Every structure is written in C-alpha cells, then in structure tokens.
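If your schedule permits, I should be very grateful for your opinion on a structural question. Thank you for your consideration; the sequence and its tokens are set out here:

===
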Amino acid sequence: MAGTEPLYLGFDLSTQQLKSLAVTSDLKVLYEAKFDFDVDSTGFDIKKGVLTNEEEGEVFAPISLWLQALDGVLQRLRDQGIDFNRVKGISGAGQQHGSVYWSEVGEKALQSLEKDKSLEEQLDQAFSYLFSPNWQDASTQKECDAFDQYLGGADELAHITGSKAHHVNSLPKIERDSRLIFSASLVPKYCDLDTNIQMNTWKPHELVLSPRFSHQSSSGKSHQSIYLTSVE
C-alpha cells in the first residue's frame, strides 16, 4: 500500500501560524508542514500574527496573509513529495473566533482557480472586507450592549441563542463595521452549526436561525451583501 494508499489532509489555522498534516487511514503521519506568519510571510507589518489598533481596541489579521500561508504550506508539502491525487479528505480547524467576508464574486473566483497562480493573486477581489477580526479584538462593547438590550437583556439573549453577546462573536463585529451586512439566508451554505452558535444567530433548542437577531443585525442599514465563513 505504500505510496498508493489514501491520504487525509488536515489544516490548523492558529493566530500565529498555519500547520498541516497528511495522514493515512490508520493516522500515521507521512507529511507535515507549517507557515509561521511573522517569520515566513512577506508584505505584512504584523506582530504575533495580527495587526492592532489600540485606540479602538481592534485586533485583526489580513486575509491575504492566510492565503499566502496556505500557498506556502501546500508548496512545502509538495517539496516533500506528497501526491495530492492520493488525498481523499480535507479538514480544517482554527482557534481564531474570527470571520472571513466573501464578496459576491468570491464563489466564482474559487471555481476558476489556476494551478500556476497563487491564491493571493487570484482571490484579490474575492472578499468584501480584507481583514478578519481576531479573538483578541475588544472593539464591539457598544454593539454587544445593543444586542443585549434589543432582546431584553443578556440572559434573554443567552436563552435564545445559547450565549450572551461577547466581543469574539461575529455578528457584533459585522454590526460595527459599516462596510458589511449580515445576510442570514446565506449562512447555511457557508457556516455549520457551531459557527452559528458562536455568532449568536442560532436557536439551538429549535435548530433554526433566530429571526429576531437577524432583524437586529440589519439595523436598517444599506450595505453590500456578503458571504461569511467562520474561522472558529
């Protein structure tokens, strides 16, 4: 079976690096690669994987940094001799409590990727917002308070969605930034159950999106619709 058995590729996106493992069906590690954001990236004035705006309490990462990292990790696996034709499954995990905001052309861009060009180059128009708020971001206290108040208090919000409003949740971040609007109808395509719970949009006891919270997230604003992917 050596050299022909199926491989399964896993990615771990943390605050400071992207790691990948390729394992066999019996979990034997055959290939391993990582990309340290501070050390290996080019073109980003980051520290410990993020950019900061201390005055506003903002902590965020450039999406293009992660694309550069994904290209880098895949190239390092290729340099080790991995045969990507053997890969039968791919999984990913993250410790970011962040979110990536796809533009309306993002899906089309993903469907027309060329192997001889970098992801950073090909997906430069694929995002409606070029940064992902990090778990350390604390800029949304006002929005968290507003969501609590809208639904009758922190306890009521926790009863409906499973948790109180928190800085790390995605929906207060979307509400804060006038460049974004959350479109609840697009969430099931790009987000799983855990994602919606972390965003404070899910009614776990009914397994549906909360229409009350979706209404609050709109706030009567008029912005471009976005696709959202969580980095949980």
